[in-house]
Amino acid sequence: MDGGGAPPARQGPAGGRPRRAGPWSSNPDALPLTTRRSPPLALPQEDETIVRLVGELGTKSWAKIAGNLSGRVGKQCRERCAAS
After folding, report:
1. Span 13-42, average pLDDT
2. What is the mean pLDDT of the chain?
3. Coil/strand/helix, residue 82
4. 59: which residues sit within 8 A by CB, 6+ positions away?
C-alpha cells in the first residue's frame, strides 16, 4: 500500500534540484522564475537634494531625508551620500 498522501516532489535531471522555467518554457511541472526589480538609478537632482538635506538634518535622519525623495528609503540615501 502506498499510503496516498502528497504527490512526489518535482525533480530535475537525475533526481536533483527542480528545474526553473523561463517564460518560454512549455513544461507545466517546471517552477516559475522569480523576478526582481532593480532600484531606479540615482539622478543628479537627487544627489543635490541629499547633500542639501544632510546639511540641514545631519547624518542621523536618513528616514526624514528619504521622505523628501519619492521611491527612496533611508538606506539608499545613506549609501548614495557615502558614494558622492
Report:
1. 63
2. 77
3. helix
4. 78, 81
